[in-house]
Design a protein that fits this description.
The complex is a heterodimer of chains A (373) and B (126).
Chain A: H1 2-10, H2 19-55, H3 71-80, H4 92-108, E1 117-118, E2 128-129, H5 138-160, H6 163-194, H7 199-204, H8 219-232, H9 257-282, H10 291-294, H11 300-321, H12 327-354, H13 365-372
Antiparallel strand pairs in A: 1-2
Chain B: H1 6-37, H2 44-47, H3 66-90, H4 92-119
Helix pairs in contact in B: 3-4
Classes of the chains: A mainly alpha (373), B mainly alpha (126).
Chain lengths: 373, 126
């Protein structure tokens, strides 16, 4: 009796899903992804400290729990129990709103990321894309939402009413908008080949082995995208907005405790997002590098997360390897190198598509060769 | 199903609206909780703006370099252009050589402006 009434909340008489069921499904998947992202962020900080320690021939954090695995949790608790300081001269309302504004876009950008395809153990007849919202303008959505995070940074810097915070915010905004342009053009070249803005469709267009990935025809654009991505989420060597040795953390210098942590969280979430988007746009998303590996019982999600994890490792590697850029070098790279380079490559891709006798360059010489064999 | 049907679009984007609400809660809750849980002992020194231990000697919302402003203006131009190119790139294979040449002409005009900005030193930082 009770079971039936509970059931009637979720299914109509004809067995169709009710609004409540749909809503519940959304909320569950959203919570799964948000908590997954939050945990990944926590353990990315752990990985970062361990990997940099390893590169610099020292231990890294290894005291809290086995291999220091509980370190991020200890850090979280410590930050949580710290005093919240709201400076007397700050604009109180904006100061309070800014961390939330930085955090929300970092999370909701994950709404359109396709994590793979599943039939849910045969529940559905054909595989469905594992995503919260499979919108057909996925790429545009990611671009739009990730640029919203500038508002959080700008407001934080402005509201703090501190010189370091103000300088950090101005630098950060300027850097993020500069690199967004080359990123946009790099994405346009992918769209020219894929012919769709839906992220799942872009992955489908790269099916069948690594030689079909856009990494190969668009290799220069891949590099531009990756480096601009590092600049977008102010990773080393582009961490001028923080610049702890010159402007002591930049736009969030006045924040303390968990409010401070929120900005770092948003930044790491942005890095994870960039890694996922790069894997989807250039590295074949959830497809394995060789077609025969797709036949193995490994879910596609594992391949996608593996590729993203490798890219996160590359970002950490950057940090351990390169010294920080100077501001004029940063602007020069964005405006005078990447912008003309991406524009030129865009024209080249268009020419390759439209010049008779040259289309083969963009097609897949290796798969043709295999078919010919 | 018509992909431009309003009901279909609402169904596609509704999860994002739910996500925004959940993200707002997830962003705000730890901040408020942390404020309630942790001991708060404010004093004037703690609440003053950080400036290497000195008293702040002028307003921090100071003048800043005009080049930041120039970059912002250039950004609007170029970012609009990328947004303009997204739909073009999707249908590129359908609109044929004509559409391609059209966009290249548009890009040419933009590149002329870009070269002008470069020569004028708008992109020059030293």
């Amino acid at each position: 009796m009770i079971w039936e009434s509970v059931q009637s909340l979720f299914f109509n008489l004809d067995g169709a899903e009710t609004v409540l069921f749909t809503l519940g499904r959304w909320v569950l998947s959203i919570l799964a992804i948000s908590i997954g992202v939050a945990l990944t962020v926590a353990y990315t900080t752990y990985m970062e400290r361990r990997i940099i320690g390893w590169i610099q021939v020292r231990q890294g954090c290894n005291r809290v729990g086995p291999f220091g695995l509980l370190q991020p949790i200890a850090d979280g608790i410590k930050l949580f129990l710290k005093e919240t300081i709201i400076p007397a001269k700050s604009s109180k309302f904006l100061f309070v709103v800014a961390p939330v504004l930085a955090m929300v876009p970092a999370f909701i950008a994950f709404a359109v990321i396709p994590f793979g395809e599943t039939t849910l153990f045969g529940y559905w007849d054909e595989p469905r894309v594992m995503t919260i919202a499979n919108v057909n303008i996925g790429v545009l959505y990611v671009m739009a939402i990730s640029s919203l995070s500038v508002y959080g940074i700008l407001l934080a810097g402005w509201a703090s009413n501190s010189k370091y915070a103000f300088m950090g915010a101005i630098r950060s905004t300027c850097q993020m908008i500069s690199y967004e342009i080359s990123m946009g053009f790099a994405i346009v070249t992918v769209l020219m080949l894929a012919g769709s803005m839906n992220l799942a469709e872009i992955v489908h267009a790269q099916q069948g082995g690594f030689w079909n990935w856009y990494l190969i025809p668009l290799f220069p654009m891949f590099l531009v995208f990756l480096i601009s991505g590092a600049a977008e989420c102010s990773r080393c060597p582009f961490d001028l907005p923080e610049g702890e040795s010159e402007i002591v953390a930049g736009f969030f210098v006045e924040y303390s405790g968990f409010w401070f942590a929120t900005f770092s969280l948003a930044e790491y979430a942005a890095m994870i997002l960039i890694s996922l988007v790069t894997s989807i746009l250039f590295l074949g998303g959830w497809y394995a590098p060789f077609p025969f590996l797709d036949a193995l019982p490994i879910p596609g999600t594992v391949w996608l997360l593996g590729k993203a994890a490798f890219l996160i490792f590359v970002f950490i590697w950057f940090r351990a390897t390169f010294p920080r850029y100077r501001y004029d070098q940063l602007m020069r790279l964005g405006w005078k190198v990447f912008l003309p380079w991406t524009l030129a490559w865009l024209a080249v891709i268009g020419l390759l598509i439209y010049t008779p006798g040259l289309e083969w360059v963009l097609e897949n010489p290796i798969s043709d060769w295999i078919a010919w064999r | 199903m018509d992909s431009l049907d309003a009901g279909y679009l609402a169904q596609q984007y509704a999860p994002i609206a739910v996500f925004i609400l959940i993200a707002l809660a997830m962003g705000a809750a730890p901040l408020i909780l942390s404020m309630l849980v942790a001991t708060q002992k404010p004093d004037p020194e703690k609440l003053s703006a950080y400036e290497c231990g000195f008293e702040a000697f002028e307003d921090s919302r100071m003048q800043f370099d005009v080049r930041f402003y120039l970059v912002a203006i250039l950004f609007i131009l170029f970012d609009l252009e990328t947004a303009f190119m997204f739909p073009w790139a999707i249908v590129l294979k359908d609109i044929g050589i004509f559409g391609f040449i059209e966009m290249m002409l548009f890009l040419f005009v933009l590149v002329v402006g870009y070269i002008y900005a470069w020569k004028k030193g708008a992109l020059q930082w030293e």
